[in-house]
Amino acid sequence: MAAKGFNAYKMAQEQFDRIADKLELYEGTRELLRTPMREYHFTVPVKMDDGKVKVFQGYRIQHNDARGPCKGGIRFHPQETADTVRALSMWMTWKCAVADIPLGGGKGGVICDPHDLSEREQERLCRGWIRQIVKNIGPVEDIPAPDVMTTAQHMLWMMDEYEHIAGGKYPGAITGKPVGHGGSLGRTEATGYGVVFILRESLKELDIDISDTTAMIQGFGNVAQHAAELYIEYGGKVLGVSCWDQEDSKAYSYIRKNGIDLEELRGITNRFGSVDKEKAEELGYERLPGDDWIAQEANILIPAALENAITGDNVDWIKPSVKLIVSGANGPITPEAMDVLEGKDIMVIPDFLANAGGVVCSYFEQVQNNTNYYWPKEEVLGKLDDKMTSAFYGVMDLAKRKNIPIQAAAYMIAISRVVDACRMRGWI
Ligand code: NAD
Predict the structure, then answer these.
(1) Which of 178, 223, 297, 374 could disulfide-pair with 152, CB 3.0 to 4.6 Å?
(2) Residues 30, 201: Cα–Cα separation, whole Å
(3) Model-level pTM greater than 0.70?
(4) Over 90: is that where the pLDDT of 6 sits?
(5) Listing from the earlier edge strand, what are the strands of the sheet with 250-255?
(6) Own/partner pairs for 320-324, CB < 8 Å, 24+ apart?
(7) Which run of H or of E encompasses 31?
(8) Exactly one of 71, 95, 107, 323 is catalytic; which is it?
(9) Which domains, from first to last, does the chain contain?
(10) Mutual orientation of helices 377-402 and 187-206 as an angle, nearest 10°?
């Protein structure tokens, strides 16, 4: 999503180049990995309810599949761009590699605002998207999943269309499906819970008791709500959240110094993660500008909305009370802000490690689809905890051994694994 002057793809390439230098990668290897291997840009004609045809721009971008089929979500967003999808596809490659699951990186999107579409129009858009890309995706090629403003229902329509065309049952072609229709228990919670499994281990490393901590969260959608849920269950206190207000087309931070009541706040939040501002004020939340979540006296910051949240312009607002930043969103910290944070006494857990829970659970969903045997929720979340915790300690060990920042260690592990796969296959 392009904020003015911000380009997620340039940022993803800049992050990669820094690590490529550290790993002393050859020119050809760099060229292969700093660019997606395949890109599909296509139009999706949709018959609207009023009988007119509207044409949407769709994308699927496959960054790298050396470690396994591409994997990554589909976004519906009015400000979607090819460069955003390129960046997200690259981050998916690193995410699957750092979590050590046998998948590559891909991402898709449609330039649209689902708020403006009826249910039937959304269904036709989902089916149209599949028809345009069906030859290039599938359970052994590239497996889409939900992302911002796409839901389990969208995934089921997409899978249904895929199966109609493919002429068989292929539940593993798409993940993030509804439970009972090939979906995995625990998938809805997975990304937010994964963020908190990593947060819990990070606090152990910092020797801080989770029940003594407070957090501010940006976003109040799927990731943010589930992160808040488990963090509160572990004894933490969420002081506030920041989210988008459709009516005013801007974000607000909602803060209550004695902590939010999660269920109460959920009760006044719509399905797109926007809090009702009047009701929030009635319930005693202070309404501040959208970026003010960064400037609060909390111990932990969890950016869980969109890219480009903590930048060179606002990184200095962060209070000395903040000891940990765990990125739930993709790309929420710009490289410029990252440089500043590395000079401070703050542990920063990079996005592609912290939010890998979603794709790990999607991988579990595929495994369950392939065996046609479904695990209980506790088993899914237990396996997720194991995978996230072991990825975290793999990264921490390298960071300590080489005395390098956690983000650099995570990138080094991920990129080295992908380079190895490319080399073993004889691509480079
Ligand atoms: P969502 O659509 O459910 O929620 C997005 C939230 O961000 C909403 O509360 C919205 O109001 C808020 N928001 C939007 N613009 C904002 C702004 N300018 N300031 C403050 N808040 C703003 O999306 P989600 O699924 O929770 O995803 C959030 C982030 O996590 C995205 O970056 C996504 O790519 C990433 N992510 C999601 C998953 C997943 O499984 N859902 C997995 C990995 C990464």
Answers:
(1) 178
(2) 33
(3) yes
(4) no
(5) 286-289, 250-255, 237-245, 214-218, 300-303, 324-326, 347-349
(6) 320/345, 321/297, 322/298, 322/346, 323/206, 323/208, 323/299, 323/347, 324/199, 324/202, 324/203, 324/206, 324/208, 324/299, 324/300, 324/348, 324/349
(7) helix 27-33
(8) 107
(9) 37-173 (3.40.50.10860), 188-354 (3.40.50.720)
(10) 40
68 pocket-lining for ligand 1 (C-beta < 6 Å): no
Nearest in space to 410 (alpha carbons), one of 111, 103, 18: 18
40 alpha carbon, distance to own chain's centre: 21
pLDDT number for residue 272:
85
Tokens at 409, concatenated:
């260690």
**52 class by beta-carbon count within 10 Å (0-12 exposed, 13-18 middle, 19+ buried):** exposed
CA torsion, ordered 128, 134, 136, 137, to nearest 10 deg: 100
Rounded distance from Cα 304 to ligand 1 centre (Å): 6
Structure tokens at 364: 């579990």
- Distance, in Å, from the CA atom of 352 to the CA atom of 72, rounded to the nearest integer, reads 12
For residue 76, give both structure tokens. Answer: 């519906």
Q: Please tell me whether residue 326 adopts helix, strand or coil conformation.
A: strand
Q: Which atom of ligand 1 is nearest to the CA of 243?
A: 21
- Residue 410, classed as helix, strand or coil, is helix
**Distance from C-alpha of 41 to C-alpha of 29, rounded to nearest angstrom:** 25
